[in-house]
Amino acid sequence: MRLDIAVLSGDGIGPEVTAQAIKALEAIAHSFDHVFTFKEGLIGATAIDKTGNPLPDKTLELCVDTDAILFGTIGDPRYDQDPTAKIKPDQGLLRLRKELGLFANIRPVKAYKALADKSPLKKEIIEGTDIVIYRELTSSTYFEEKELNEQETVPSDVYEYKQKEVEHIVHLAFKAAQKRRKKLTLVDKANVLESSRLWRRVVTEIAKTYTDVTIDFLYIEDAAVQIILNPSRFDVILTENMFGDIISDEASVISGSIDLLVSASIGDVCCMFEPIHGSYPRIAKKGIANPIAAILSAAMLLEHFNLTEEANAINNAVEKAIELNLTTPDLNIINPLTTEKVGDFIYDYILNPEDSNMNFENIHVGLSTII
After folding, report:
1. Which terminus of the chain has fewer Cβ atoms in its 10 Å neighbourhood, N or C?
2. What does pTM read for this prediction?
3. pLDDT band for position 362 (50/70/90)?
4. pLDDT at 311 exceeding the cut of 50
């Protein structure tokens, strides 16, 4: 297969971790006889600095003209922490989602056995956790009209959903549940919000065409509790934009590190894959950023194009790196690897899984004869 991939590395540690994701994809291309081309585009604070625009037109055109987007991170305290700033990095990402119609955010949450002691939750609580959160991404209060009175004392944010917007992502979530453990949980606030009542009506009606999937409903506050007390009860979680933003970040604590979590943003035509962690400008260019989430985003990209064996090759390499403790300081304080060395091991393991398993000590000290 040939894929043209737009690379939006962004800010902070984005370029460092995205480089390792590209490295993993290059190993896949070599092992499975694919052709992947990578084309860079500006976004976020980097784009503001160079063009004055967090999403330059050239970047948007690049994304439209390629098959998929590999996204890094955005954010810079020069803009994010300045309440007077009219232009901010996250405006570029929000506009990108809207312009490309990336209506569904898909975020897997998995508990790795080798990292059970890293989680703030007890091992017996997180054991067996394997969740996928489907979050609507281009509607509700994040995108609707916002008003502020002249005295700046009364703000107003419109919270609105159209039935077609809800139906769009509901079908995706049900189809995902059919391929998994056949359970879907809608998270809403239907006891208060009219928009949540619409979600319940739509899910209940559409469920009639997915009779093999069991559905249940949880208010957002109940779901927030259950994510911590009993995360393994969930299979596919479906929710609206703001609730999804909150609950997916909450669920990130299960794995023990936000640097392991990834998401896909899917539209009818375009698709984007990214780590969910921030830009961490304070550690940028120090070689200590964890690239695993960025690398797993490359696996999600492959899976989206039905390259399942290829995606599994990356996932297996990541699991082996975690198992052997070949990780960055956030997961391995005593004897950590650099960002690049973690990427090197995963590249090597994809190409030579048997050799890499024996040769990891050489890689640990930078003496691999394979790479």
Report:
1. N
2. 0.87
3. low
4. yes
